[in-house]
Amino acid sequence: MIVWVTGANGFIGRHLAHELAGAGHAVHGVGHGALDATEARRLGLQSWINGEIDAANLDALAAAHGLPTHVFHLAGGSSVGVSIERPFEDFSRTVASTARLLEWLRGSAPDCAVIAASSAAVYGADHFGPIAETAIVTPMSPYGQHKLMMEQLCASYARSFALRCTVVRLFSVYGPNLRKQLLWDICSRLDAKEQVLTLGGTGNEIRDWTDVRDVARLLASVAEASSSQETFRVINGGSGRGTSVADIAAGLIGQWGSKTAVRHSGVSRPGDPMSLLADAAMLRQIGFDWRIPLDQGLADYVAWFKGQAS
């Protein structure tokens, strides 16, 4: 099939492009960031447009390579903190880009299926234990609110124009090439040989940690399992296994081979829920299995970090 990936130059997008190309699909990308032809091919992209998700660039892709059968929409904001500092920028990256994509598909490729990457941040802070897709959504941050608005746009176009859309709410995605967030921060400080790591929060915050290589398989699997009779659905992209921030820190320190002590400030970041854990029943129904256990994922992340830092 002819596949387009918006945001293919991002953390998840790079892994997804490689996964799709490995399955024999013709993969083309559009989004921000300069990629020369050699790097694009290494990622599995047959072509890459560095630019906005807009009609001009989508028209150019279609003219050069044909209409897509599937679009994986990964472009958008990727940071709660940035969304709080610059909310309109986050809105533009997430909501406006989705509106432009869906409107172009409505007019130019109405038979194309959309797989849109959303976030567990839409659920907000009022949940404890596994969260089902039917749970009340009360986002705490502009980031989560904009992801929810993106989902609502997909639902609207599915309902009004029969555009097939699947929303996958991703939880705490980590893995090789992630250069931000908790794992990157801890490894950077271990590399700097800090004797004591002081982390925010209490350490008891629960997250559903998923390796990006499994997440890429998941997104590809969702596309394969899409039904032509079902125009809109939401799926949790989480494992259903919760791990505390304190245990993640301890696991990374152990994999690093360090005896660094960890303290927690007790001060949580704005927009940071206490618990985000997926109810994974829908994934089990479509037969998806998470293959990379957390200890292996952390070991691989430490090995990657040390390799890129050397």
Summarize the topology.
Blueprint: E1 2-6, H1 11-22, E2 26-31, H2 37-43, E3 47-50, H3 55-65, E4 70-73, H4 80-85, H5 87-108, E5 113-119, E6 130-131, H6 142-161, E7 165-170, E8 172-174, H7 181-191, E9 196-199, E10 206-207, E11 209-211, H8 212-224, E12 232-237, E13 243-244, H9 245-256, E14 261-264, E15 275-278, H10 281-285, H11 294-309
Parallel strand pairs: 1-2, 1-4, 2-3, 4-5, 5-7, 6-15, 7-12, 8-11, 9-14, 10-15
Antiparallel strand pairs: 10-13
Helix pairs in contact: 1-8, 5-6, 7-9, 7-11, 9-11
What features would you describe in this structure?
The protein is of the alpha/beta class and 310 residues long. Helix content is 44%, strand content 20%. The chain has helices spanning 11-22, 37-43, 55-65, 80-85, 87-108, 142-161, 181-191, 212-224, 245-256, 281-285, 294-309; strands at 2-6, 26-31, 47-50, 70-73, 113-119, 130-131, 165-170, 172-174, 196-199, 206-207, 209-211, 232-237, 243-244, 261-264, 275-278. The protein has a seven-stranded parallel beta sheet, sandwiched between helices. The protein has a four-stranded mixed beta sheet with strand order 6-15-10-13. A two-stranded parallel ribbon has the order 8-11. α2 links the parallel β2 and β3 (47-50). α1 (11-22) crosses α8, α7 (181-191) crosses α11 (294-309) and α9 (245-256) packs across α11. It is globular. The termini are far apart. The mean pLDDT is 95. Residues 4-236 form the NAD-dependent epimerase/dehydratase domain. This is NAD(P)-dependent oxidoreductase. Belongs to the NAD(P)-dependent epimerase/dehydratase family.
